[in-house]
Amino acid sequence: MRDLYVVLGIERNADSRAIKRAYRELTRRFHPDVHRGHAGDEVYREIVDAYAILGDDRTRALYDEFGELSLTRGFDPARARAARERAGDPTWQGSPWGAARPGAAADDEPDDLPDDAGDLDFDDLKHARRTVFDDLLGSFWRGREVRLDDDADDVDTDDDDDDASGGMGRDARAEASVPLARAVVGCHVQVRVGGRIVDVAVPAGARDGDVVHLPGHGEAGSPPGDLHVTLRVLPDPALTRRGLDLTLAVPVTLLELYRGDPVEVATPRGAVRVQIPAGCAPEHKLRLRRQGVHGPGGEVGDLYLAFRVQLPPAGDAELLRALERLQAAARPRG
């Protein structure tokens, strides 16, 4: 695989406008309508592939730090940095992966790095891996536009794009609404571009106002314009986010709280079974380590379970007497 900066003919310190300018010039020059045949298609795809990585600040930063290995599906930058430190080589570009634990007990410490984390041979890698190009560009090359759907968000074209000339497609902009719980783990949404629907991958940990950039999904042209989707993360009445940490309100009965029962909790990553500490106060929070939001640098926040006592409707005389006895027993004597 050629260096992506070489593919676009730009310096490594090029800014975003220079990258976009190079992409537009090259795609116009090597468009399949101009260079027909398999060779022309391969060159054009190589250009679009390179821009998909370098045109996005996050994937570009990872590529600058780790090179081609950052394009591998499942690559974990935090593990890579830790393994690089263990190797004592600042230029190391090994490939540590590790399967994430399906669940975590309350207050468990995070797992250590796997002992076999280390280098991965490129010859093996090129046969075994699935790169992020499959995710970033799959919709471009496999035509992941689906039939018109009334639930999809509409798109506006960018009439002010100063590069739109000579038959080039204009950029398009859209907004997509994403529930907070789905934004935490990542999901797919749909937006409408003209008479088609484009599938948009929302990255895990997305925040309100984040923009997903899709090369080649804007208005038709030679080359086609880009699509910029602004994410609107919807608030959740039970789930809140602060940084990488999450707090989830969990309804429980007074008996469950007092007795310390096990309860099943539906978290953004799936159902987990937790043990309530016996006799804990209603404001008590239980922490699930590393079950929060995954940050762009590989760091992971925690999930806090906030127990909320749900009382039955008023008017139960027997329950009232039981609560009065409980209060009398808890009142300090003397």
Automatic annotation (TrEMBL):
Source taxonomy: Bacteria, Pseudomonadati, Myxococcota, Polyangia, Nannocystales
Pfam families attached to this UniProt entry: DnaJ, DnaJ_C
Residue ranges occupied by any J domain in the UniProt entry: 3-67
Biased composition (Acidic residues): 106-118, 151-164
Disordered, as annotated region: 80-118, 151-175
Protein name: DnaJ domain-containing protein
Signal peptide: none
Recorded superkingdom: Bacteria
Gene Ontology, cellular component aspect: cytoplasm
